[in-house]
Amino acid sequence: MDKTIKLTSEQQRKVLFRLLGYIKPHKKAVMIAFGLLLLSTLGELAGPYLIKIFIDDYLTPRNLEVQPLMVLGITYILIQIMNVVIMYFQLFKFQEIALYIIQQLRVDVFTKIHTLGLRYFDKIPAGSIVSRVTNDTEAIKDMFVSVLATFIQSGFMIFGIIIAMFVLNVKLGAICLILLPILGFIIYTYRKYSANFYQDIRERLSQLNAKLSESLQGMNIIQVFRQEKRLKTEFDDINTKHYNAGMRNIKLEGLLLRPAIDLVYVLGLIFVLSYFGISSFANPIEIGVLYAFVSYLDRFFEPVNNMMMRLSLYQQAIVSAFRVFTVLDEEDVEPSLALNRENKIKNGVIEFKNVTFSYDGKQDVLKNISFTAREGETVALVGHTGSGKSSIVNLLMRFYDFGKGDILIDGKSLKSFNKSELRERMGLVLQDPFLFYGTVKDNIRLYNMETTDEEVIEAAKFVQANQFIEKLEDQYNHKVVERGSAFSSGQRQLIAFARTILTNPKVLILDEATANIDTETEEAIQFALSKMRKGRTTIAIAHRLSTIQDADLILVLHKGNIVERGNHQQLLQQRGLYYKMYLLQNGAADSIEETVEHKVELT
Asked: What whole-number distance in Å separates Cα of residue 409 and Cα of residue 507?
């Protein structure tokens, strides 16, 4: 789960400047939006001053000339109408800019995720990553739409009101500036505490998404093993923490946002009215000036209140942006590959030379692994769970970077080949194949439009997947739902075989590829694989020893070591671990633990 991180003021400032950097490609649109914002602010400021003129120059002296009053009234109405129109376009422009920015930010995050190594996904729940791409970027959008426009407009408004106050009464305008430090202190206090609260809220929301994602993916296991109550308790615990974090922030907002600002406003209003009241004993005061000053004071606190109410959105956006930028700055990327395109996989000869590997940097899961798979040969990897079979495949596919030793392909280091060459010339079939939402045809060709329909059909026929595909309602255009859940495990596996064969790889990697296929289908697949392996180097992980008896070399692994090697007959003659595994699968084995201990003593 994500850890709650307390953001310092310096971190918040850096995040804000980095967010503002996304505005650069939209400078022209931003300038137009700010220009409209300035015009709407001037329109807001002009209203009270026009009313002041009406009261002091026409109403109080009863100078009710029709023409000047008509001009004044029409001017006021036109300004209000124009203000409405300008505000519409100004808000539209800011929304447009915000959507463009969030669109780019989401693309950046999505692209970055596809460059991350598998180590990152081993430690971060999928739901947490989804939360950053969706919920967090949505919170950032609110900042550009509401916060940025409101803060700038409020800044213009406050600055304009202060100038208007000085024009009306210099002494009183100067005294009113005392309110600014008080408001600044309230804003500072709110920001100081709310940042931590919002960080907690976002992390709890991320945990909720992670728990929900886990529950949906494992729903069948949850129901089979009656885990509903436990999952409900865990979800309720996270949800309660999210609620408590939200309540802490609500209490802070309830104290420092509207109530505190309203209190300062009331004190300011009392002070202004007292000033005019005391001044009236010595000299008469202009009612229009009093109205304008009170109106400006009210409008002075209106943008302050708007800013304070938007501070919550601002804090959410900063916290969310920090979480998004954490993904963008993640250094745990996939292992680097060479950029040059000179090295090509021609023969597919694979050699492991004293390779040692650890997932966590502490415990080695592979120890001095050395073997050679020559062109056209099949090398099978067998051993109990956790012996290191899948780790060898992970290193060969360059999903993880190995520490000691080297892996050679055609005599050249694996690290010297570019990514495109490795992915095009190496085919991988997993035990649990992944199907994308789309059609059967799209899943076989993997959306490579250069592949013809005829080639797709030929690949399906090669692995005999056509037998069930042609019975589907739309055959190769049959819709595949999420993860291909409407197909059986064997059917998904056959589609995965067709997908791999279509790429015509030089190196074929099978990770228990026939585990989910029934016996009759397996026989057909084994026949297809025997044709497919010709001229190709094959690395096959197998639990069922019957599927790899024809392998040229079988490596028996135990706790990250190769404890036996040879072909099927040679290993049976050794009467070691492989022999005991073979007897066990044929229903006539002694304790395999005894054999393992014996082999460890020998090595």
From this structure: 10
